Amino acid sequence: MARVYMERVIERCVTVSHMKQVHSHFVTAGHFQSSYLRSRLLERCAISPFGDLSLAVQIFRRIPKPLTNDWNAIIRGYASSSQPSLAFSWYRSMLSQCRVDALTCSFTLKACARALCSSATPQLHAQINRRGLFADALLCTTLLDAYSKNGDLICAHKLFDEMPVRDVASWNALIAGLASGNRAHEALELYKRMELEGVQRNEVTLVAALGACSHLGAIKEGEKIHGYVKDSNLDRNVIVSNATIDMYTKCGFVDKAFQVFHQFTSNKSVVTWNTMIMGFAVHGEAHKALEIFHKLEHNTIKPDDVSYLAALTACRHAGLVEYGTSIFNNMACNGVEPNMKHYGCVVDLLGRAGKLREAHDIICSMSMVPDPILWQSLLGASEIHKNVEMAEIASKKLIELGVNNDGDFVLLSNIYAAQGRWKDVGRVRNDMETKQVKKIPGLSYIEAEGTIHKFYNSDKRHEQWREIYEKIDEIRFKIREDGYVAQTGLVLHDIGEEEKENALCYHSEKLAVAYGLMMVEGVGEETPVRVIKNLRICGDCHVVFKHISKIYKREIIVRDRVRFHRFKDGSCSCNDYW
DNA sequence: CTAGGGTTAG
Description:
- The protein has helices spanning 2-11, 16-29, 35-47, 53-61, 68-79, 85-95, 102-115, 120-130, 137-149, 153-162, 168-180, 184-196, 203-216, 219-231, 238-250, 254-262, 270-282, 286-297, 305-318, 321-331, 340-352, 356-365, 372-384, 388-400, 406-418, 422-434, 465-481, 497-505, 508-520, 539-551, and strands at 443-448, 451-456, 529-533, 556-559, 564-568, 571-572.
- The protein is mostly helical.
- The protein has a domain at 445-572.
- Strands 2-1-3-4-5-6 form a 6-stranded mixed β-sheet, with helices on one face.
- The model has no long low-confidence stretch (mean pLDDT 91).
- It comes from Eruca vesicaria subsp. sativa.
């Protein structure tokens, strides 16, 4: 009786002072001898939003011989705190003093997943094997998730294969891990395998599978999954429907995304609104994005940091400088402090519009240490506006910060080249050779007949590469007649004009578009060619695709690293502002 | 030695 009563007392603690009172009462009344009540109080103190982890630690320190559950409460507290790595230090001291159980491992693994400490996960794995806990599906799923979140998908997959007991959450954890770990294709295969093996899928499965489609731009599979979602009434689940909106957006069909948004059957969450605003924003439809943002402002749901980021992104891609800066300047008054991403957006917005000095001043005025991305953004803007002085400031900062990105060197070199400062061009190129410059290879892909085809620059790995290269020659011939001139100024090397043109014409995105054109020949004009590129689209490709869209009467949709370009009748949805 | 642990969206 007394225990049940005391339990209730613990549950009613909603402030730190309550907890302190209950604690001293327990100590004087001798309740603290009950290890159950003790760990309950510790846990409440350590993890509930009303609690205070440092108080829990104080209480813990006064326990003469803490038991497993006392340790577990503290580790669980740290695992969900802002310093999850401390959970692992506690775990290590616990090992030498007390028996570890499945819960201990579970909480510590949760911390591993959050703290991204890849070295600890295998240690926990060994501990689980040593204690014979591998038949615990919950624990193994937590372990699998920790491997996934640390990017070790090989171990995650191996564990999945070896698990003696698996349930839907185990499948979900691996699908989600693959989807967010650049192996979205395998995530979809695993999703399909669930059906074959008769594993009942749930809302979490669908969210993860839709996420895989978003990454890949796999619209065929995405539509199928959306169909499944509707058939199983899972569209009433907000998270699933949000993932559906995102899937349509990232596959290039923002209008379909809006249909889902418009016909929402359950209550929208702030994420629903944000996803839709961001969707229109990355498609360059700033006015629709901002209209929804305004509706959100007058809604009972409060806009959060992502809402502002989405609105700023809309302004950024449309060049709405004044509007964007006013949103940026007002957000703090509405209770949302700008973070690094907001700064990134506004610096890009100002820089692209030629307000380089203002962009620079914003970076310098920041109270937090600016991320290198901000300087890269300023450098990019300096190149567009041919401002050597600002480019040098930005690139000097990047070198100071130890950022060796090949794109940054290329930009600086281009700026010098545009001014005919060949000595400086040579110096930058020397730097590129002496420093180990990281080069991210350009990669484009396209879905055709349900499979994804990948292309690198000048790639000849595709089985139909000869036809693709012939198609490119045909395109070049036709667009020249339409007035196309190769943008050879974009090529860095001092080689002949013809060689420069050759360096441009087999860019990965051109290979993918050429292949796409081949695949839609004879198919209704309304079927667009959709391509995804890992980096930003190249300027020459942008010109070429405008011509193609006109001559071949075919819409081309390119998703680059930051936004969509929709080429139609000779122009692009970005209005050449990017 | 009573309960407590896992997978999901912008």
